[in-house]
Known about the structure:
Elements lengths: L1 H26 L8 H5 L17 H5 L22
Amino acid sequence: MEIVMLLVPLMLVLVTIGIFLFSWAVRSGQYDDLEGPAHRILYDDDEDMIPAEARVDKRQQTDTPPDGDPEGKDTGSGDKADRS
Length: 84
């Protein structure tokens, strides 16, 4: 019975603190924009974070042949006429 006499006031203090913190969060605008952060993650703003030496020009990528060989050289990947 002694523990109940300790836990009831402690519970009331914790509930009061919780209500105070929730009302502070509502007043400070924490719940105003619930969808904004979910949409913000979809935007591509990583360009500033990529180091200059690691950046690849998108126009340069489209000039490469579709097989991935940037110089356009044949690697002998299947033509029988190329074999010696």
